[in-house]
């Protein structure tokens, strides 16, 4: 399972460990990913996603999963989240 947030696309970063003697060795910084169940009010179902804590805070700040998906461009989303966004758009189009 890859270490990438399904909503924000945040992945691992590469940097250096720097010792007291200023020796540098490569290391990776992994995002803090959590398995979360988010509720979509428009689709009337719950969705399990692997989301970073930063992404989870962003979703809560915007006002929920539905608002987050409509405001975020599709190229920044994972394929699964992009599919959810298309389902939301289809549901909204049918309701209008």
TrEMBL record:
<dbReference type="InterPro" id="IPR034704">
    <property type="entry name" value="Ribosomal_bL28/bL31-like_sf"/>
</dbReference>
<protein>
    <recommendedName>
        <fullName>Large ribosomal subunit protein bL28</fullName>
    </recommendedName>
</protein>
<dbReference type="InterPro" id="IPR001383">
    <property type="entry name" value="Ribosomal_bL28_bact-type"/>
</dbReference>
<dbReference type="GO" id="GO:0005840">
    <property type="term" value="C:ribosome"/>
</dbReference>
<dbReference type="Pfam" id="PF00830">
    <property type="entry name" value="Ribosomal_L28"/>
</dbReference>
<dbReference type="InterPro" id="IPR026569">
    <property type="entry name" value="Ribosomal_bL28"/>
</dbReference>
<keyword id="KW-0689">Ribosomal protein</keyword>
<comment type="similarity">
    <text>Belongs to the bacterial ribosomal protein bL28 family.</text>
</comment>
<keyword id="KW-0687">Ribonucleoprotein</keyword>
<dbReference type="InterPro" id="IPR037147">
    <property type="entry name" value="Ribosomal_bL28_sf"/>
</dbReference>
């Amino acid at each position: 399972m890859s270490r990438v947030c399904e909503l924000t696309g945040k992945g691992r970063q590469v940097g250096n460990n720097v010792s007291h003697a200023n020796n540098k060795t490569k290391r990776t910084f992994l995002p803090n990913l959590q398995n979360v169940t988010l509720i979509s009010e428009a689709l009337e179902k719950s969705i399990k996603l692997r989301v970073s804590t930063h992404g989870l805070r962003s979703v809560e700040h915007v006002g929920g999963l539905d608002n987050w998906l409509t405001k975020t461009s599709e190229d920044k989303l994972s394929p699964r989240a992009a599919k959810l966004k298309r389902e939301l758009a289809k549901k909204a189009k049918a309701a209008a």
